Amino acid sequence: MITHLVALTTAIIAADECGIPHSNIFVFNVSGENVPNGHQSWTELLQYGESDWNLVADTDNTAAAYVSTSGTSGLPKAAILSHSYMVSQAEILSRTLSTSRKVRRDSQNS
Questions:
Q1: How far apart are CA 11 and CA 4, in angstroms?
Q2: Phi-psi category of 19—alpha, beta or left, where left has phi over 0 and alpha has psi -120 to 50?
């Protein structure tokens, strides 16, 4: 689990409820914030270098991420995103961001 420092307390509570060891919680301190004792910076993960992706047999039914919902219909909940969903979103973003679009501003409508 990677969390920002301001959400660390909440992440610890969630980790405890899900049985995630505290040693698997990393602090995303991109602005150089101090990491509290007993916790690790996300940069520790970079020491392992690069490796090939692990293949997932059932991409539609294997969790890739747990993300918080907005809670518009009640309390926020953890939404489970599958590997196939994450890959499709990355493909869409890649295509969208690589498409060159020119926007012309009409001076009469601004």
A1: 9
A2: left
pLDDT digits (tens, 9 = 90+) for 53-93: 788 999 999 999 988 888 888 888 889 999 999 999 989 98
**Calpha distance 38→24 (Å, rounded):** 11
CA separation, residue 66 to residues 2, 41, 49, 69, 100 (Å): 11, 20, 24, 10, 32
Two tokens, residue 102? 């020119």
Spans of all domains in the chain: 1-47, 55-99
DSSP structure class, residue 109: -
The reply to whether the predicted model has a pTM over 0.90 is no
